[in-house]
Amino acid sequence: MMRFPALFAWILLAVALFVNFLLQPNLFASDTLNSNMRVFLPLILLTAGEAVVILAGGIDISVGAIVSIVNAILATRVGLSGSPEAMWQYVIVALLVGVLAGAFNGFFVAYLRLQPIITTYATSFLYAGLALFILPNPGGGIPSPIAELYRSTMPLKLPLAFFIIAILLGVWAYIRSTRYGNYLYAVGGKPQAAYETAVPVTLVQFSTYVISGLMAAFAGIAITMLSGSGNAEIGAAMTLTSITAVVIGGTALSGGVGGVAGPVVGAITLGFIQNIISFARIDTWWETLVKALIIVAALATPGIINLFRRRE
Amino acid sequence: MALSLSAQNIVKRYGGVLALSDGNLEVTAGEVVALIGANGSGKSTMSKVINGVVVLDGGQLLLDGKPIAFSSPQAAKKLGISTVFQELSLIPYMTVADNIWLTREPLSSGWRVNRKDVNAKTQELLSLFAGTYKTDLRPDVWVSELPADEKQIVEILKAVSVDPRILILDEATASLDSRQVQRLFDLIKTWKADGKAIIFVSHRMEEIFRIADRYSVLRNGKTVGAGDIKDVSDNDLVKLMVDKDSVFSYSRTGGKKEEKPVCLEVKDLKTKTLRGISFDVREGELVGVGGLQGQGQRDLLLSLYGDIVFSGKVNYNNKPIHFKHPRQAMKNGFALVPGDRAREGLLYIRSILENMQLPSWANYSFPLKMGKAGKDAAEMGAALNLKMASLSEPVSSLSGGNAQKVVIGKWLMRKPGLLLLDDPTKGVDVGTKAEFYSLLTKLCDEGKTILFYSSDDEELIGLCDRVLVLHDGGIKTELAGATLTRENLIAASLGVSEGGAN
Q1: Which residues of B touch A200 (CB under 8 A)?
Q2: Mind listing the pLDDT tens digit for each residue in B352-363?
Q3: Complex ipTM
Q4: How far is A103 from chain B (nearest CA, A)?
Q5: CATH of B261-333+417-496, one of 3.40.50.300, 3.40.50.2020, 3.40.50.720, 1.20.1250.20
Q6: This prediction's pTM
């Protein structure tokens, strides 16, 4: 389990895909796949950033609020009738805002040595408040050609999300092969030992929050292009889902074990679980309960397996 | 001019505690200086000042006569100062190779770490200790999967891989077996010849006399003596350290004891590492468990304590027992002093009182009678000669030896009948060791039974009635009386059967 932390996520994904396929036989048709993947993509991007923070021993619960800010900025500044040029300009602005919000978190956690969970909980209200300030009521949006671009771009008849995931995993594989990649594991695994080995612990911790802020901005851009409209609370529910995806993906909350690939698989799996529930025609008021039960069971399974192993 | 490092009048405070008030140390290229002192005397602080982990509050460091100052381990590393940390600076879920080369990984194009190179260079380093490993130690195994002695070796190799000019070895031999220590000493000799300066911190007097050229003794944060090792005897050094005479007179008194009834019978006990061992222990006996590290000693104690799964028969006071949980063991009067006091023995940030009473709160009714709990803990503290500011201080404020007294004290509060001790004097200063020895002897005289694992051969020989020598998961031999000699013990530890004739 420790050696292949993402193994469980892959098994779970296979099971979810299978069940989903039974309920929805055209699951693997390219249009269906695309409509699913484009919905999953924002969470996947968010989860990748969260995974980096958790890997290095921290946690960031302000990511959902950063998604909201980005959505609010794009929806109000670009507008439904805006030009594509304006859209791309504000995409840059959105990314900068994400980096800035992440750097703010990182400064408090790494340099002022505050508790990550408390710090990012506090800043999450700050960012959520800013999002509401920018966009008090749901509305606004981005020009429909741009939303259309996100929805139906299918290079080689494959969903756009596949290519973005491939780039994401490629970048992660590269980061992992660098010295910085080693530092992430060292800082998350045993910060005191990393410090004594002359690893720049503070800088590494700081950098993970910047990465997480940047990825939250990407997620915000993706979800805005998906919905085409603005809602300052759009990201609120995503934070805990992304942390769940990280854990399902085998990256330990204690840090130092796992990676980004597992959590990405975990995020895709959570997407398919949501899909299954929609197709299983479960009454709306049971939905949350059933979804929660599946997730709790998924999280508990490795622990239960271990319990039986101990008992022998 | 040969390289030299000189620390002069070093002062270091942690909060209100003065850890070093006047620390001095000189070391030059090609020599080994032993830094000696009781636990809490400031040895660790001294080495942390030299390697930049803590910033000094007063005094100065001179490298080749020039003052140096650094505020981080990075800076010290750049000047060629490298450390083998007592608590090991290894990341558990990283490979041996990644740990050794962390921050100095050889890179290939695009700043990628050249794993092939890293593994090859690691293999080269690992060969320094070739032949002393018990596992198939490869560069790509996780450090968390290694036994304690091999972790220690990786830590040593990591420090050496920098090719340092000054090497600090802080208790580097504590988890090593005698073969590994010998290899380390051989290596130290070659490093000396290469012109490295070595600072050797150890509690083991015998090792200090084997390897050191000079010594420097710390007592209560002050350097109280320094000189050539050939001019002193071990008793001289001990006197300097503890201000007390004859701490080595711990041999058991009273001669032959009457034969008490057998109280613990173990038959064919098997675990993952133990291959079926059997022995008896009589009431009031102090039975040692010896052998190289990791031969199943820990498993033996833990399985008796109900902490790990085992098969086989165990009788205690003629009643069959098979504990599945430490709680059952505790109820039956068992107590375990674990081998890793930081992780298993103590709640470091909680108070001495809480730690002392942790297994005994049930005896103080509800609501808790805090006054009585405090009084009992204070009595135990006094009985153990525990040096503390007050019971409400956190255990983290204590030195290693005093912290260990808290671990022992918390079990003695429960008045156990059988004590299982897992290397209780590891990293404990000689003064406290002597106190432990007389305490153990006294406990046995009171009728308590003790099973005592130690990695220190001297204390097994000096203290125990009998010693069971474990080798590769079995009892190699049992030494007692005239056969209980250092030669026999080492021979049996290494699995040489002729040495340990019964």
Answers
A1: 74
A2: 999 999 999 888
A3: 0.85
A4: 24
A5: 3.40.50.300
A6: 0.77
